[in-house]
């Protein structure tokens, strides 16, 4: 399915074409699409086809056509802080775009039938986090994927604000899908050859809207049984109690964005111009330089994977911690006393700069004290 939109020379031109054809209609969806290069989710030998409006499949790995993903993103009406469930999460391309909109207080879960595809999705997610400047531009809700058949989720499982199914659904499974949705939530799925938007308006009331004609492979029916019962797929935990360190990291990143750059500019693109790929790449690099001050400082703030409770870890553990927050991008830190002061990762040179900027921020004094001086015992 696809082919409704002209092929692009690169990701930006593909998005230009999707906008011109009215598949992308809102700023949030446009920003999410521009932030992630579709070609990064292709195998290297197939990257030349990444900017065509066509679906792509290689073995168990599958990507829907860009026009389908854009219609799905628009129909989901995503907002920060919502919970999202992706049934047939595949490469994680859609889940990662969704995570850019949900923000740090959202929930982003996926269920995928094939374990090798989940491994592929985590590889692509890791590549995005470590290499993309978009990771610093957005507050990201990182997706979590579990292996299993999406028709084997326990009936008493948690419900979500937004649900998408990436495989063809027959009428006999429509009610099953609806039960995964909270009241007020939106379900988008291919239902009998039509991409369909279902809004749950009450406990037993629904609004149904047909979007476009589509052709999806049907859902794979469950095969495995234990004592005649369906094997339940455990979903990830919906809510986790955030540490004070994690909340502080989120607060200071958001404040740094506003303090250093005013209103933080999200990725956008003006009118299409005829230009070479080399010029587009240079424009991208120039844009990256504009955010370097923020990216450099915000990556000194530890992420949720950092653990200050273990101050005597091994060299291997410290190296993993370094990669977890992107510290290695600004320089190797050899000594524990140089690397940490309380909950803020520091190096000798930027320590004073970071301290001065923290003191200028409009944060409560206890939070400043925590960021600057606190060390877990």
UniProtKB/TrEMBL annotation:
Residues 302-326 are annotated as: Disordered. Pfam families: PCMT (PF01135). GO terms for cellular component: cytoplasm. Its main location: cytoplasm. It is found in: Cytoplasm. InterPro entries: PCMT, SAM-dependent_MTases_sf. This is Uncharacterized protein. It comes from Denticeps clupeoides.
């Amino acid at each position: 399915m696809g082919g409704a939109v002209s092929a692009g020379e690169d990701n930006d031109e593909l998005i230009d074409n999707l906008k011109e054809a009215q598949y992308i209609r809102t700023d949030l969806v446009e920003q999410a699409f521009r932030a992630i290069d579709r070609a990064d989710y292709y195998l290297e030998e197939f990257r030349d086809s990444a900017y065509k409006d066509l679906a792509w499949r290689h073995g168990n790995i599958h990507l829907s056509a860009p026009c389908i993903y854009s219609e799905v993103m628009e129909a989901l009406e995503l907002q920060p802080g919502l919970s999202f469930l992706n049934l047939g999460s595949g490469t994680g391309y859609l889940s990662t775009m969704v995570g850019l909109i949900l923000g740090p207080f959202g929930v982003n879960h996926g269920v995928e039938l094939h374990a090798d595809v989940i491994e592929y999705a985590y590889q692509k997610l890791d590549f995005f986090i470590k290499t993309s400047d978009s990771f610093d531009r957005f507050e990201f809700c990182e997706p979590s994927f579990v292996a299993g058949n999406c028709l084997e989720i326990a009936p008493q499982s948690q419900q979500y604000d937004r649900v998408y199914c990436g495989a063809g659904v027959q009428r006999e499974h429509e009610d099953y899908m609806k039960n995964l949705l909270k009241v007020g939530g939106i379900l988008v799925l291919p239902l009998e050859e039509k991409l369909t938007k279902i809004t749950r308006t009450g406990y037993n009331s629904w609004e149904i809207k047909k979007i476009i004609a589509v052709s999806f492979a049907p859902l794979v029916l469950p095969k495995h049984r234990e004592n005649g019962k369906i094997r339940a797929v455990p979903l990830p935990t919906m809510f986790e109690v955030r540490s004070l360190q994690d909340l502080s990291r989120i607060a200071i990143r958001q404040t740094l964005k506003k303090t250093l750059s005013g209103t933080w500019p999200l990725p956008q693109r003006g009118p299409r111009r005829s230009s070479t790929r080399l010029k587009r790449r240079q424009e991208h690099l120039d844009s990256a330089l504009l955010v370097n001050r923020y990216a450099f400082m915000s990556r000194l703030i530890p992420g949720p994977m950092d653990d200050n409770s273990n101050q005597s870890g091994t060299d291997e553990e410290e190296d993993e911690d370094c990669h977890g927050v992107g510290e290695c991008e600004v320089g190797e830190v050899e000594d524990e006393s140089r690397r940490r002061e309380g909950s803020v990762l520091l190096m000798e040179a930027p320590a004073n700069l970071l301290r001065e900027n923290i003191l200028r921020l409009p944060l409560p004094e206890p939070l400043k004290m925590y960021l600057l001086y606190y060390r877990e015992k």
